[in-house]
C-alpha cells in the first residue's frame, strides 16, 4: 500500500469529517498512512500548498461570499419585487403556526424598551494577572491561558508530553516502549503537549531567552512533529512507539533540517498551514475576540482596556472614543467572521428595540472553556469555521457538534445578551462540553477527576459539575434559583443523560430528546458508555446514582431539543431556499451510516439496530424496485444529498449512536419525516405540533414500515407538506456573519436562474431571513418560561 500525497491529505482531512470524532479507533490506519514517506518526489512550496486547498467546498465558499456581498446591497429591493412571495409575519399570531401550548406569541407582544449603556467594571486584578492573563474588571478575577494558573496567573500549569523528562525531552526512547499521541521525539511545548523539532535542528523550536517575561513567544516556533514519531534511533535500534524513519525526521534531508524536506510531517495545529507548516493564519476564538483582541488558539488576549472571554467589554474609565486597534485596521479579514455584539454598543442604539429575555453569558473559568480549545492539537476540532490561506474564513466540512461553538457565538452577539447579571432572566454557561470529547483521549490532561480516564460523558459531566460548583462558590446567581435559570448545552450523542443531579435543575439544550426512565446507553462506542460504574472520592459513591440513575435524559417541561447546525449550503436544493421545485419522485428516503462492515458493531447496537434491520429488509424485499424506497449509505444511494431530500416525499428519521440530525434534514427540504425511535422526542416536539407534519412508527413495527407509509392518504400528504412550509425555518440557524452570507449566496444563486426574483415557493419568504429561526425560537420559548422560572414576569 502506498498513499499519494493527495490521498494522504484526504485521509488527514477526513478525520475532520468523521462522524462523532471516533477517529481514535482508526488510529492504526492513520498511523500506517502517516508513516509512509511521500516517495522521492520533491515538491515546491506552491505545489505543497495547493494540496491543502483542494477541497472544492472551500473554493465554493469563497465564491459564495463574493456573491453574498453583492446580494446584501440589492437584496431587499428584489425581494419586494417578487410580489408573489408571501410576506414575513407581522402579528404575533402569524408567528405561531403549529405552536403547541402557549409559549408562542407573548414574546411578540412585548413593548420594546431602550437599552441602557453597557455595564463597565474597573475592579483591578491581583498583580495585573502577571502580564499573561486577562483581568475581568467586573469581578477582579484573572483568567489565565494554558501554562499559567493561580489567582494572578503566576503558578505554572503544565501539560507535559507523555514520558517527558524535566528537559522537555523524552525520558528515553527505549526505556519506555508505550505509544501515546503526545509522545515526543523532539522538544515538547509543555503548556499544551505539542511536539516540535528540537532546537539543535535547523527548523527546531527556539524558546525565548531565559529571563524573558512570562508568555514571551518563542524566537522560532519550529516545525511540529505531531503524528511523527521515529521507528529507530540514530543507530538503527527499533523504537517501539514510532513509525517514521529516523533519517526522514532528523537526517540532513529530513523534516527537521531540510528547507524542502523529502518527508512531510502532517500540519494539523491551528494557526499554521502549508505542507511546511510555516504560513501563519488566524486561529479560532469565539467570535474572534470581537475584533478587540489577539486570538491564541481559543484564548482571547484583549487589547488594552477590553475584557471578557470575547473581549466585548470595555473597562470603566477607558474612553470608547480613543483610537483602538480594532479589526477594521490591521486585520481587515476578521470582518468576515466577527459578528458585532449588540450588547457592547456604547452609546446603545437609541430606538427602543430591546426585548426580554435578558441573558447573561458567564465568563467561565478557563479550565472549563478556553483551555479545552487551547488543548486542541487538531485544528479542525471544536468549531464550524476556520482560517485558511490568506486568512480566508471558511467552513469546516463537518463537525457533528458544531452547534456548540455556534450557540456560544449566538449568545455572545445576541441582542438578548446583558452585561448586568442582576437584571438577567437567564444565565448561559458556555463550557466546552462537546469540545472536551474531541480532546479527551490525547493526554492525561485534561481529565475529570484528574486521576480517572473514564468514559467521555463522565469526564464532561464531572467538568460540568465543577463548573456549577465554581459558579456557586464565586457568584451569587447560581444559588439564587437553585440553578433553574442556568442554561447548559450538551450537544453530544446522548446529550444530558449523564449530567449530575446537582446541575440537572438547569435548562438543558440538547439534540437527544430521550424521555424514558430508567435508561441505559445506546452507544456501541465504549468511550461513550455512560453506564460504566466508577467510584471516586470526589463524588461520594457510585457516580451513576448521582447522574443517569437520578433523572431521564431529557425533561420536556424544562429542557428543549434544538436543531443541529448545518450551514445553509447543506439545504441549498430546498424549495424553501428558492430552488426550482423538483418533482417528489422518491417515495421514502434514507441515506446514512449503517455500520454493517464486518466487526464494526457485532452486537448491532448502533441506531438501536434500526438502520441495519431496515437495510436488510429493503434489500431482501427489493424495496427500491417494488416501492421506490431508497435506503442505504453513499455507495447504495449516491448523489447530491440536498437534491435527494428535495426529491423525496417521505424521509426516515432514525437514531445514530444517540441523536442523528435526520429530522432537520427532512424538514429543511420539505420532506415528511417518518420518525422511528421510541421514547425520543424530535427537535422542538415539546413546543410544535410535530404530528401535523410527520408520522411516527413504533420500533416494533419495523417490518410494516412500507405498508404504514403507503397507507397515508394523498390528502394528508398535501396537508403535511403545506405544514412543513409553515415551520421549516425554525429548524435552522442564521444570525452570524458566515451563516447569513451563506444563506444570501444560496438565495442569490437561485435568483440568478429565475430572472433575478426569488421563486415564490411556499416558505421561501424565510430563505435568508432570521425571523423565527432556531435561536429566535429558543428566545421566544425562554421568554414564555420566565414566570415559571422566577414566579413573576
Ligand atoms: C471605578 O468605578 C467606580 C464606579 O463606576 C468609580 O466610582 C471609581 O472612581 C472608578 N475607579 C477607578 C480607579 O477608575
Ligand atoms: C497589565 O498587563 C497587560 C497585559 O496583560 C498590559 O497590557 C498592561 O500594560 C499591564 N498594566 C499594568 C498597569 O502593568
Ligand atoms: C533511560 O535510559 C538511559 C540509558 O539509555 C538512562 O541513562 C536513563 O536514566 C533512563 N531514564 C529513565 C527515566 O529510566
Ligand atoms: C493572517 O493572520 C495572521 C495572524 O493574525 C498573521 O500573522 C498573518 O500575517 C496574516 N496573513 C495575511 C496574509 O494577512
Ligand atoms: C451551592 O451553594 C449552596 C450554599 O453554599 C449549597 O447549599 C448548594 O449545595 C450548592 N450547590 C451546588 C450545586 O454546589
Ligand atoms: C443483515 O444481513 C446480514 C447478511 O445476511 C447479516 O449478517 C446481519 O446479521 C443482518 N443484520 C440484521 C440486523 O438483520
TrEMBL record:
Keyword Kinase: no
Species classification: Eukaryota, Viridiplantae, Chlorophyta, core chlorophytes, Chlorophyceae
Residues making up the signal peptide according to the UniProt record: 1-41
GO MF: glycosyltransferase activity
Compositional bias annotation for Low complexity: 72-91
Coarse class of the protein's main subcellular location: Golgi
Pfam families listed in its UniProt record: EGF_Teneurin, Exostosin_GT47
Alphabetical UniProt keywords: Disulfide bond, EGF-like domain, Golgi apparatus, Signal
Membrane protein topology class: Single-pass type II membrane protein
Places the protein is found: Golgi apparatus membrane
Limits of the EGF-like domain: 121-154
Name of the molecule in the record: EGF-like domain-containing protein
Region (Disordered): 72-93
GO CC, any one term: Golgi membrane
InterPro entries: EGF, Exostosin, Exostosin_GT47
Family note: Belongs to the glycosyltransferase 47 family.
Disulfide bonds: 125-135, 144-153
Amino acid at each position: 500500500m502506498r498513499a499519494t500525497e493527495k490521498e494522504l491529505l484526504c485521509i488527514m482531512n477526513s478525520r475532520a469529517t468523521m462522524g462523532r470524532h471516533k477517529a481514535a479507533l482508526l488510529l492504526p490506519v492513520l498511523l500506517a498512512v502517516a508513516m509512509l514517506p511521500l516517495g522521492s518526489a520533491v515538491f515546491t512550496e506552491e505545489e505543497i500548498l495547493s494540496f491543502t486547498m483542494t477541497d472544492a467546498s472551500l473554493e465554493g465558499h469563497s465564491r459564495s461570499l463574493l456573491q453574498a456581498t453583492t446580494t446584501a446591497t440589492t437584496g431587499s429591493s428584489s425581494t419586494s419585487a417578487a410580489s408573489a412571495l408571501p410576506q414575513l409575519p407581522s402579528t404575533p399570531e402569524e408567528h405561531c403556526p403549529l405552536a403547541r401550548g402557549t409559549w408562542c406569541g407573548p414574546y411578540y407582544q412585548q413593548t420594546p424598551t431602550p437599552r441602557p449603556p453597557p455595564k463597565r467594571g474597573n475592579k483591578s486584578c491581583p498583580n495585573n494577572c502577571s502580564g499573561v492573563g486577562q483581568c475581568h474588571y467586573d469581578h477582579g478575577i484573572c483568567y489565565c491561558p494554558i501554562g499559567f494558573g493561580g489567582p494572578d496567573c503566576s503558578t505554572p500549569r503544565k501539560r507535559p508530553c507523555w514520558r517527558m523528562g524535566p528537559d522537555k525531552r523524552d525520558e528515553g526512547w527505549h526505556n519506555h516502549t508505550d505509544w501515546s499521541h503526545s509522545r515526543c521525539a523532539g522538544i515538547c511545548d509543555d503548556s499544551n503537549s505539542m511536539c516540535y523539532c528540537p532546537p539543535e535542528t535547523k527548523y527546531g523550536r527556539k524558546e525565548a531567552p531565559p529571563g524573558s517575561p512570562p508568555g514571551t513567544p518563542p524566537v522560532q516556533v519550529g516545525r511540529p512533529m505531531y503524528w511523527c514519531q521515529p521507528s529507530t534511533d540514530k543507530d538503527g535500534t527499533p523504537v517501539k512507539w514510532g513509525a517514521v524513519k529516523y533519517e526522514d525526521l532528523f537526517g540532513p534531508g529530513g523534516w527537521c533540517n531540510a528547507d524542502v524536506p523529502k518527508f512531510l510531517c502532517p500540519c494539523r495545529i491551528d494557526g499554521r498551514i502549508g505542507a511546511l507548516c510555516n504560513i501563519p493564519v488566524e486561529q479560532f476564538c469565539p467570535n474572534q475576540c470581537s475584533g478587540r483582541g489577539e486570538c491564541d488558539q481559543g484564548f482571547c488576549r484583549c487589547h488594552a482596556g477590553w475584557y471578557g472571554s470575547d473581549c466585548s467589554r470595555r473597562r470603566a474609565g477607558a474612553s470608547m472614543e480613543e483610537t483602538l486597534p480594532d479589526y477594521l485596521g490591521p486585520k481587515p479579514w476578521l470582518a468576515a467572521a466577527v459578528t458585532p455584539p449588540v450588547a457592547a454598543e456604547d452609546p446603545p442604539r437609541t430606538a427602543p428595540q430591546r426585548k426580554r429575555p435578558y441573558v447573561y453569558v458567564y465568563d467561565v473559568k478557563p479550565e472549563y472553556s478556553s483551555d479545552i480549545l487551547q488543548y486542541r492539537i487538531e485544528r479542525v476540532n471544536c468549531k464550524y469555521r476556520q482560517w485558511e490561506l490568506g486568512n480566508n474564513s471558511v467552513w469546516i466540512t463537518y463537525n457533528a457538534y458544531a452547534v456548540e461553538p455556534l450557540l456560544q457565538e449566538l449568545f455572545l452577539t445576541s441582542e438578548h445578551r446583558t452585561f448586568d447579571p442582576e437584571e438577567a432572566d437567564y444565565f448561559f454557561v458556555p463550557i466546552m462540553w462537546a469540545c472536551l470529547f474531541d480532546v479527551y483521549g490525547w493526554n492525561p490532561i485534561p481529565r475529570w477527576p484528574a486521576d480517572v480516564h473514564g468514559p467521555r460523558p463522565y469526564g464532561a459531566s464531572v467538568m460540568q459539575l465543577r463548573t456549577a460548583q465554581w459558579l456557586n462558590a464565586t457568584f451569587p446567581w447560581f444559588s439564587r434559583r437553585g440553578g433553574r435559570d442556568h442554561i447548559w448545552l450538551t450537544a453530544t450523542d446522548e446529550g444530558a443523560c449523564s449530567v449530575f443531579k446537582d446541575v440537572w435543575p438547569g435548562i438543558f439544550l440538547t439534540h437527544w430528546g430521550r424521555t424514558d426512565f430508567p435508561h441505559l446507553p445506546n452507544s456501541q462506542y465504549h468511550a461513550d458508555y455512560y453506564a460504566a460504574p466508577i467510584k471516586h472520592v470526589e463524588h461520594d459513591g457510585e457516580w451513576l446514582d448521582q447522574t443517569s440513575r437520578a433523572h431521564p435524559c431529557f425533561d420536556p417541561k424544562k429542557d428543549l431539543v434544538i436543531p443541529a447546525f448545518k450551514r445553509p449550503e447543506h439545504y441549498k436544493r430546498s424549495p424553501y431556499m428558492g430552488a426550482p421545485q423538483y418533482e417528489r419522485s422518491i417515495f421514502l428516503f434514507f441515506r446514512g451510516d449503517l455500520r454493517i462492515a464486518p466487526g464494526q458493531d457485532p452486537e448491532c447496537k448502533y441506531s438501536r439496530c434500526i438502520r441495519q434491520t431496515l437495510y436488510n429488509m429493503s434489500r431482501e424485499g427489493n424495496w427500491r424496485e417494488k416501492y421506490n424506497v431508497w435506503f442505504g449509505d453513499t455507495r447504495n444511494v449516491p448523489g447530491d444529498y440536498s437534491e435527494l431530500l428535495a426529491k423525496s416525499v417521505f424521509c426516515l428519521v432514525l437514531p445514530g449512536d444517540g441523536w442523528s440530525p435526520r429530522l432537520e434534514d427532512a424538514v429543511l427540504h420539505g420532506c415528511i419525516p417518518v420518525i422511528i425511535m421510541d421514547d425520543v422526542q424530535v427537535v422542538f416536539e415539546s413546543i410544535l405540533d410535530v404530528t401535523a407534519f410527520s408520522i411516527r412508527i413504533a420500533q416494533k413495527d419495523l417490518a410494516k414500515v412500507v405498508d404504514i407509509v403507503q397507507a397515508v392518504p394523498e390528502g394528508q400528504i398535501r396537508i403535511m407538506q403545506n405544514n412543513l412550509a409553515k415551520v421549516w425555518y425554525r429548524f435552522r440557524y442564521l444570525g452570524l456573519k458566515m451563516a447569513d452570507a451563506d444563506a444570501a449566496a444560496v438565495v442569490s444563486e437561485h435568483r440568478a436562474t429565475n430572472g433575478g426574483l426569488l421563486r415564490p415557493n411556499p416558505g421561501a419568504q424565510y430563505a435568508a431571513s432570521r425571523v423565527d429561526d432556531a435561536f429566535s425560537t429558543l428566545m421566544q420559548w425562554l421568554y414564555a418560561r420566565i414566570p415559571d422560572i422566577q414566579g413573576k414576569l
